[in-house]
Amino acid sequence: MFERIFHLLVKEFLELKRDKSARFRLLIPPIIQMVLFGYAATFEVFNVATVVLDQDQTQESRALVADFVHSSRFKLVAVAKDRRQVQDAVESSTAQLGIVVPPGFAELLRKGQSAPLQVLVDGTNSNTALIALGYAGQISGNFGQGYAQDLAQRTGRALGHPLVSVNLQERYWYNPNLNSRWFFVPGVVGTLTLITIVNLTAFAIVREREVGTLEQILVTPIRPIEFIIGKTLPFFLIGLLEVSIVAAVGMIWFQVPFKGNPLVLLLGTCLFLISVLAIGLLISTLCKTQQQAFASNFFVLNPMFILSGFSFPISSMPAVLQWFTYIDPLRYFLVIIRSTYLKGVGLDILWPQMTALAILGMGLYTLAVLRFHKSLD
Amino acid sequence: MEAPVAAAIQVSGLEKRFGAVVAVAGLSFAVAPGEIFGLVGPDGAGKTTTMRMLASVMRPDVGSIVIDGIDVLASPEQAKQHISYMPQRFGLYDDLTVEENIRFYADLFEVPRTVWQSRAAAMLDAADMTPFRKRLAGQLSGGMKQKLGLTCSLVHTPRVLLLDEPTTGVDPLSRREFWQILYSLRSEGVAMLISTAYLDEAERCDRVAMLHDGAMMYCDTPAKLKEQMPGVMLEVVTDDPRRAHDVVLGLSGVRGALLVGNGIHVHVDRRDCCAQIAVALQAEGIAATDIDAVEPTIEDLFVALLEQKKTGASK
Ligand SMILES: Nc1ncnc2c1ncn2[C@@H]1O[C@H](COP(=O)(O)OP(=O)(O)O)[C@@H](O)[C@H]1O
Ligand SMILES: [Mg+2]
Fold first, then answer.
1. Shortest-distance Cα residue to atom 2 of ligand 1
2. B57 CB within 6 A, ligand 1
3. What is the set of domains in chain B, with CATH numbers?
């Protein structure tokens, strides 16, 4: 069994070696996409839904709130009466950002002391939220600076520290600079891997079916499962290589730090690749020609991308769609790759995602093998 | 001719449907070791489907297949060790060289290196392909591709060889070489099932089965089959084959007519019906550039036999 799989592997790599355009297809587009994505990822964000609670009710506090409301970045959707209402608004996704001016805010300012401003953010991995948070810091920083200058003119006293400090309730203790590129680059690695490997796998098998080599090979004593393993293993290896290369580009070009344990990411990548290969294999069992495969890939990959939480927070999706995200391997892999990259967390935190990927991978692969048997007739 | 006793291939009651289409309808036959058995019939007769089921890449709905004493349906993996199948479509890897393709198939059949190397060398030599060992399969001519396919099919010394239209679109020289290889395999006792669209090729077989709509119409030696079709085949070259077809069918001594590429084939009792046809066509104002006797094609024979069967049944 292993010998036949090995012979199949040798054949795959021989074919790949001959196919100059394949080598190009494998390497260049992902790198280009990585770079493009990396640059495009610094979105501008406007009209972030914001809820405000002013517990101080002073001239200063109103001035600060007005600064927020008049900025094009934020849009006031509700004025809360207590903390509960702010929390509810953010949790229910009515607002993405909550701003609380605590009592005594103005008093501290007048004394020249640092006054806290509390900010609540929709607690998801949302790029928008992170950027919004950045703007919130900017606006309150500017407000504090202006106030300090006024104060200095009136009292002749210069302050060595910023006047308004933004206190995060929902803490993003990773990515402290709110660098959206850092947030995006790991996600791009996962997404590009998904697209490339599903395409390669589906095309490689459909091609053998279309060209007629599948029929010829199946009359040898090779078992369908050996064929499948021999056919997907190369793409598993290519997938690992691709993740490494794209990740390296992300780290070197965009200088996104890697904080976690590479082995944890490796494990997650392996589990992820099993699901990805299975999806490619499944598509290949449903298609007779490469053209059909192309169309199917499009229809499968797009929803996977959208449901993964790559750019739209899962928590703001309708409940039905949220259920679908549970069968999207990219959803789990994005958590794994972002967390290992940015937070440096390990298996103690990521085991639910790892388990989900493992189960999903096994299930999809089994389904694909069964379908493959059927599709031979 | 009697069905052989210790058959290498024994098929009985084979049936396969695709939805409403009955591709193979209750086929039974046997092929002896060292026998070349031809399957002929028009497109869609069920030749490829039969081959696929024998090669166990497709499961029949009903029926049994025994190859070299092994029940193919019960133990396909075991049977595959003894079978070789060349699909109608070239199934080798274009991006691998001649040698790499051979080696790949030898490896999959777990043939020891020394064995397949000497075997492949001899076969490439016999097929005049030794100079092309390093050439990519995709760059070979049609004839060479088929010879390479045959070589790959034979690296594991199968007892049963299934060839689906192996010489369609192959030049005459390569075809002759191809058949030389088949004859030498016959002397080694290999049983061969070969489907073909050429009558001259069917004539080289030991026995021929004519398939129609998945069922067997005739099964006999080529000589006996040709005897079934008395008379002569004339080819009429004309620009208006449809009208010519209708005109000749009304003439006496004409058994049947068939539209072909550049005119019609007319099945007549005697050679001298020529003149009669020429006159009749001229009377209708149909220009016939040439009328001459030709070798009947497989299609002519097929149509003649089908016609005969119908009239025989109605009698
Ligand atoms: N995979 C398939 N799916 C549906 N119909 C098929 C399939 N393979 C063959 N057929 C049908 O079965 C019949 C026999 O086809 P085939 O065995 O290829 O004939 P031949 O090889 O003699 O030309 C045809 O009507 C064909 O359309
Ligand atoms: Mg056919």
1. B18
2. no
3. 9-222 (3.40.50.300), 232-295 (3.30.70)
